[in-house]
Fold:
Amino acid sequence: MKPSLQLKLSQHLALTPQLQQSIRLLQLSTLELEQELEKYLQENPLLEREEEEYAPQQAASSEVEAETAEKPESEPAPPSSADDESWLGEESSYSSSSGSFDDDDSDFQDVQAATTSLREHLSWQLGLMNIPERDRTLVQCLIEALDDDGYLTQTLEDLAETLPPELEIEPEELQIALRHLQYFDPTGVGARNAQECLALQLEVLPADDTQVLALQIVRNHLDLLAGRDFVKIKKFIECDDDQLRAAQFLIRSLNPRPGAKYAALDARYITPDVVVRKIRGQWTVNVNSDAFPRLRINSLYAQILSKQRGSGLAGHLQEARWLIKNVQQRFDTILRVAQSIVDRQRQFFDHGEVAMRPLVLREIADILGLHESTVSRVTTQKYMATPRGIFELKYFFGSHVATEAGGACSATAIRALIRQLIGAEDPKTPLSDSQISEILGQQGIMVARRTIAKYREALNIPPVKLRKTI
Structure:
């Protein structure tokens, strides 16, 4: 076979460095974008923020500066376009034999991060006690073993085994040290389970009929109270509805996580990328100026580059131009997608969650002529400030359920309807999942009971048995 030369034409997609950078910037959150820009600002001397004050020493008359004057590299203005549930009784919210809590507590989830940690607070109290040094050391060991909620999750026997053998620590000594710790503030700290934690708090209250009854319930019938089995409780302790209701109210006022208020919480701040306002009857989206980085070419280095062609800054100049252009393009794309979402979800902004319509990524992609993956990148970790709150752009997308009229209802709207129905129910005769399904069916929304149960659980609403009151 003779060797020969052949010419073959083919097409393939090449990801240029500029395109790679554009894709990367698009998928970053606002915070990640700022971190990325800081890196570029440190590495590229030709790039600077527009708000930085800089006065060049001399004027430049180079072709580079002339080009910059004709097409300014500084970032232009941002683009624009025309019922309270208690922790007590929640399903699996706590166990009388464990100090762990599975669900967030609505009463205590908004505690403020303290400047003093729980261990520091307890150690300070320990320093004020007049006890033998050996006991002081054991109490300090127990303090170090507490979790963030103030519970002692290890047994005293296990703790004794972790201490140096030469100390010859007996579990009885640790029991005495634990009693010292359980007298500390906050009351309930050092408990080994929820039952003990609540009992410790009740024991320090003034003794009256309600306190005695509540203590009896916590010590012997906490599981029944969590399951709202009031009939059995009244049978075991022989009390009437008013007495049981008063005891239940007292128990609900206790703190099942006494150490939580000393836990340092990581504050998460969200800077919305776009802002939605109603202007002349139309919902309009604008880029948030606080989230829009303003970049420009450093004029001093541009002058140097114009005079010294071989200075090695030409590459930096091109990179700076790419970055400025890609940042602008990122916000342009976010703005287009956000405005398209607002146009499709106008009823939500007028009437709330119950008016949310079904929406999928492909629908927005087809409207704007973008790829579905691009819309996915734009809507991830990008936030929209609206009169109804701040929402991630992905919030406006969701599955749908068919209606009797042949239309569709979004899952978000159905969850809002479920929340409304349960919020307006009679606590003595709460609505079951089947009843909610029937009510929605009467409104033309066909939702199965199992789907209602799934949405209800997603809303952290307990089942009908646990919502029933005395």
In short: The first helix runs from residue 17 to 27. Residues 118-262 form one domain. Confidence is low (pLDDT under 50) at residues 52-76, 81-114. The chain is about 45% helix and 5% strand.
